[in-house]
Amino acid sequence: MYTFLGGEPVWSIRAHEEYLAQPHENSPTHAYLTLASLYTQFGEFEKAQATLDAAMKDIPGPPWQIMRKADVLDGLGDLYAAWGKLDEAKRCYAESAALYPTAKPPYGGHLLPRRAARVQSKLDLLTFRSLESAALRDGQYQARALGYAGDIDVTLVVRQGKLADIRLKHEEKIDQNSCVLIPQRIIAAQSLQVDGVSGATVTKEAIVDGVYQCLKKAGLQ
Amino acid sequence: MSRPARRWRGINLFLRFRKRAERRGWSGRGYALLERIGPVTRASPLRRGVQLVCLLLFLYAFFYVCWPYAATFGAATFSDKESYPVELFVLIDPLVGLSTAMAGRFLNPATLGWTAGIVAACWLVPRGFCGYLCPLGTLLDGFDWLVGRRLRRFHLREGSARGGWVNLKYYLLLAVLVAALGGVLLSGFVAAIPVLTRGLMFTAARLQLLLLKGPGHLAPVDGTFYLSIGLFLAVFLLSLLGPRFWCRYVCPSGALFSIGNLLRIGQRKVNETCIDCRRCIEICPFDAIQDDYTTRTADCTFCQTCGGVCPPGAIQFVTRFHREPFQVDGEPLMLSRPLSRRALVASAAAATGTAALVRLSPLAAGPGKPLRPPGSVAEDQFLDLCIRCGECFKVCPGPVLHAAGLEYGWEGLWTPVARPTHAGCHQDCNFCTQVCPTGAIQPLDLAAKRRFHMGLASVDTETCLPLRSQDRRDCDVCYVECRQAGYEAIEMREIQIELNPPPPEGMFSELELSEMSRIRAPFVQAEACVGCGICEYRCHTRNVVQERVLAHSAIRVSAVA
Fold first, then answer.
1. pLDDT at residue B329 is higher than 60
2. Which of B421, B420, B417 is nearest to B432 (CA)?
């Protein structure tokens, strides 16, 4: 009833408007979110914002409250990102990503980390869109990532806007030399998209993740 | 004496004694330099050289060849280095081959061949193993050189040094062999080379790991760890009672050679030019020269120190059949003191008692079976073949293998057990199977190792994040790990979650409801699982140590019953 119905969004918008106009026993947050995203697709940002504001007022009570609030904030982030209000979008995404882990729904809890990760990646994408134009600030930045055998402490040195040095403190047991190779490759490529070392995927991902955290500190936030 | 030019010179390796007036020129300076290092080194420098080479070979094998952390890791890592056999020194300890053959009822041509070879070689050079080859003996000589010769306060005096306990090594040997006949292997606790390798394993090897890899690699310690270090230190501290005290009176491996000396060919003999100066008696590190200058043939290690300090050169190392022109005041005594029949019976009885205690008492193993390294023989035989030398822990990357404490009874003490919470058995490693000297771990090539079922993983459905009924979470670390290692023994299957209480009408879309009621969870395929434990290690590291969402790993590997 309240789906996109075979690629006919105009019809779908009308169906959702009608559905939401009826009285509801339980808050149909999902319907508000779908409608808002449809409005956003058609560039009707004010209408989308009004829909999401209504969704926020019509939020269900506990135990679903926090999860649904984070869902609506995610939708708001999508709206502002499409609208070009990047700062607003980042604020909403960040709030949403912070809310998900605190939600305590009776079931479906396994979806929360997935959604939080999805929101976080959208936020990172926005951050990087502004990073492309922004030079990295020189300095030393530190971050910690989850390695294979323990935490990996990454120290990134930025000089003249470039990745100059990556130092690791780690306890990896058999790393196939990736704790040496991966930092070299990242610096050579000046990019996080580098080949891994077979047999040490987790270590590689941890190093890339750590350098990425450092980059976020070095760039615009 | 009529034709001294044709006198057979024997195998004299010592450096002839020179009077002060003769110490001139370069050779004289060299002589003086050696004398400054120590009179024993000066008297028999060639023997010191052989000792040093053997010690260096041993240390090279132990610290370099058995160091598994190369930059890139794979079967080639070790096979390149293993052109030098690391277990060589364990193999040439004759007690290792003999006792494992007796205890395991297993005639292993590899170990017994080495045993027979070394014993036969020592007929030519009596107790040459102790005097020339044994790295523990060389270290003890080093200890004497550093500490013992300066600290003589605790040295036993002549008189007291001849008590009945001088035959302790024979009683120990008998006890070990009787226990082995009864099927309980005790030799690993007292045989020379295993004592050394295990002692180093718990001390210097840990230091090597700590310095070169970091504290995360060190195994946690328990009381038996200190027991082993204590045993190792005691071997050295015994030297405070006299040089090479352990070798002379305690070491049962040495006792085997002493008995082998009954068939000796070489022998130290003294001719009539002896001037009765007692220098040889005083310097002999093995106390093998009697007051009448004849040899205690059971104790002489052919180190030839006496030959080098004898001013007239009266001491010669020839065959036992050479009589002329040597002084033969009666056949030299085999032992300084006769073996006590009472003590022999007592040691045999003690061994039987210990074996029975170890097997039958509350000290015996509990119901749990230890997770043994890949390639291990059946548990009963494993206990009879494992000499507790620790080579497998040394060569194990991670390390996965640790010395068992008392959790598997006294019989399991210091045997290798895999601890997947500390590391998983790496798919590209078969090192432990290559170094085991006694065949407790059978040699496997990499392909065979990857098919060897050392255990079986099982998922605890009450703990596993996607499987448990409360607070489910997505998690597939065990699956990913197993797949990347190439075993594919874990499968992710979608399971249904009951939505209870039913969700409020109209609050969720169909899609949301469907997402809520499904989750992918890991299941072990028993026939594909080899029990390597990398899944357990991964779950433990990620969920217990890093994320702290579990109290213990949700997938655990146990020995196959």
1. no
2. B417
